[in-house]
Design a protein that fits this description.
InterPro entries: Glyco_trans_1 (IPR001296), GS/SS (IPR011835), Starch_synth_cat_dom (IPR013534). By secondary structure, the protein is of the alpha/beta class. The protein has two domains: 246 residues, Glycogen Phosphorylase B (Rossmann fold), CATH 3.40.50.2000; 187 residues, Glycogen Phosphorylase B (Rossmann fold, 3-Layer(aba) Sandwich), CATH 3.40.50.2000. It contains 17 helices and 18 strands. The longest helix has 18 residues. The chain starts with a strand and ends in a 6-residue tail after the last helix. The structure holds adenosine-5'-diphosphate (ADP).
Length: 464
């Protein structure tokens, strides 16, 4: 099968979140099971182009545009403020796809777009290229990695997408008097996908649907969920070159060396018996900082340390800096995007906290598993699918889970985790167990192939 995977971020070239991880690894896994998959991405300023996705034979193509991408330091925004021409930028990116494919002389069976930045490609396929014989046998799959980002713009900008005003209606791109580019995917894709089964259900509800739940309910038969994998070529404590002490389930005792380094790096007392809770996240409302700030005093009373790595909203930067001033011996605050520090945190922390309000899939808990770092999570989206509450009697479960979105419930879960941490006969087997869970992309890639077949089925192609 020929698949073009279109994404605004791809590891290791450009990343702000989980989409980049997916785009950097799913294509490799698809290639591994014999498919001709290729990746398409804008060339931002810092990117040095390569011919293949590193570590693979997956061809990668860069859309070059000096004004819109080549001169931009960041992907979408600077210091929390969006670039004012994001619609123009990503319309140009999407418009370039079809002329590019024609020039390449390579017509895909499936176009797989991701999030609002590439959603317009699907509208172009189904509206502008509808009668183009070259693309008659090409199906479209739209994956949503986070419903919180709709790609909303004022309606006056619609003509800049290259679509006509007849797309300004609720059954197309209109969204409460504005336009939402994500709708180009939701309305026109042959199948819609998101990154966990629970989230696929949640986005069809008012609470998580961000105003599009009605549309998604109407397309319910075409909405699927496939949990992300992670790339164990990158995330593996036995081979990770960025951590001071490599370890595996058989050499778990070496993990402590990373913890000591992590404490040192954060100016925290270097104590083996003090549990360290890691947090690596975009500092956004979605990620649960409001309940965390309410629980913090209580967590500190438990004699533990917290190490945070993140960038995002200014209010959370301020909040974290204030916490650091109040609890200098208990909290490490790193307000940056730092891939190697992230690895040190995954490797050195005892627990990893994700108190998310909502979480489409979540990669942090899957990476934590591999590093023997026990997740403490809220039961939502992909977190609910991958982490079940630890039962000290039966040994079942993979972490500590709370359901109610409140500081109280979060604190109770942290307390249970810390209590268990001090019982080594429970903690160590739990670590060994989660390190051996298999969240590699292989299983998920096969599910994507079935999804692509469903999409082809929708345009009347039964088999390839
Ligand atoms: P989201 O896509 O909502 O940001 P995910 O959990 O799906 O959340 O993916 C986040 C990914 O980004 C993880 O791989 C995480 O380690 C990484 N990450 C987030 N913030 C940072 C940061 N400040 N520095 C380094 N890596 C980060």
């Amino acid at each position: 099968m020929k698949i073009i995977f279109i994404s605004s971020e791809v590891v290791p070239f450009a990343k702000t979140g989980g989409l980049a991880d997916v785009a950097g690894s799913l294509p490799k896994a698809l290639k591994g099971i014999g498919h001709d998959v290729r990746v398409y991405l804008p060339r931002y300023k810092k990117i040095k182009p390569e011919k293949f996705l590193p570590g693979s034979k997956v061809p990668i193509y860069f859309f070059e545009h000096e004004k819109y991408f080549g001169s931009r330091e960041e992907l979408y925004q600077v210091k929390g403020v969006d670039y004012p021409d994001n619609l123009e930028r990503f319309s140009a990116f999407c418009q370039s796809v079809f002329p590019f494919l024609k020039k390449l002389g390579w017509i895909p069976d499936v176009i797989h777009c991701n999030d609002w930045q590439s959603a317009l490609v699907i509208a172009y396929l189904k509206v502008i290229y509808k009668d183009d014989l070259l693309f008659k046998r090409t199906a479209a799959v739209y994956s949503i990695h986070n419903m919180g980002y709709l790609g909303m713009f004022p309606k006056e900008k619609l003509p800049l997408t290259g679509l006509s005003w007849d797309q300004f209606k609720p059954e197309a791109l209109e969204f409460w008097g504005n336009i939402a580019l994500t709708k180009a995917g939701f309305v026109y894709a042959d199948v819609i996908n998101t990154v966990s089964e629970t989230y696929a259900q949640e986005i069809q509800t008012k609470e998580f649907g961000h105003g599009l739940d009605g549309l998604l309910r109407a397309r319910s038969a075409d909405v699927f969920g496939i949990v992300n994998g992670i790339d164990y070529d990158i995330w593996n404590p036995a081979t990770d070159k960025n951590i001071p002490k490599r370890f595996s389930p058989a050499t778990l005792s070496l993990k402590i060396g990373n913890k000591i380094e992590l404490q040192k790096h954060n100016g925290l007392p270097q104590k083996k018996e003090t549990p360290v809770i890691g947090l690596i996240t975009r500092l956004a409302d979605q990620k649960g900082f409001d309940i965390l700030s309410g629980a913090l005093q209580g967590i500190m009373d438990e004699h533990c340390q917290i190490v945070v790595l993140g960038v995002g909203d200014k209010k959370y930067h301020d909040l974290l800096l204030k916490m650091k001033r109040n609890y200098p011996d208990h909290i490490g605050v790193n307000l940056s995007f730092d891939a190697s520090l992230a690895e040190l945190i995954y490797a050195g922390a005892d627990m990893f906290m994700m108190p998310s309000r909502y979480e489409p899939c979540g990669l942090g808990q899957l990476i934590s598993f591999k590093y023997g770092t026990i997740p403490v999570v809220r039961k939502t989206g992909g977190l609910a699918d991958t982490v079940h509450d630890f039962n000290s009697r039966t040994g079942e479960g993979e972490g500590f889970v709370f359901e109610e979105y409140s500081s109280r419930a979060l604190l109770a879960a942290v307390k249970r985790a810390i209590e268990t941490f001090h019982k080594k006969t429970l903690w160590k087997p739990l670590q060994e167990k989660i390190m051996q869970l298999d969240y590699s992309w292989d299983a998920s890639a096969k599910k994507y192939v079935s999804l692509y077949m469903k999409a082809l089925g929708k345009i009347g192609i039964a088999a390839l």
